[in-house]
Prior knowledge:
By secondary structure, this protein is an alpha/beta fold. It has helices at residues 4-13, 27-38, 50-62, 77-91, 116-128, and strands spanning 18-22, 42-47, 66-71, 97-99.
Amino acid sequence: xxxxxxxxxxxxxxxxxxxxxxxxxxxxxxxxxxxxxxxxxxxxxxxxxxxxxxxxxxxxxxxxxxxxxxxxxxxxxxxxxxxxxxxxxxxxxxxxxxxxxxxxxxxxxxxxxxxxxxxxxxxxxxxxxxx
Length: 131
């Protein structure tokens, strides 16, 4: 069980944050961005799909929040570095919260029938994208 002190401390981290959310173009990532907007945070909404990232930003702004859309393939280190630089520039100070939400799945076939390229892609996003 969390103490009141721990709950308060955790609460502060996600309120008034300078947050970067990867995979913000849909699903859980979009939900994170919208919740952060309700918590008075500024949000960089990063997604591989630029249009979906912009849709999330529009929703955040409609909810009264502040957000910026950034196209980013988290499996590409140079794009992640650029995302970090863009966020810090836009915030005017270092990012205070990162939600590494981007993720993909492979499946539908027996393990041995899934091409190695698909596994490389999944590891690039799900492992290296977080690291």
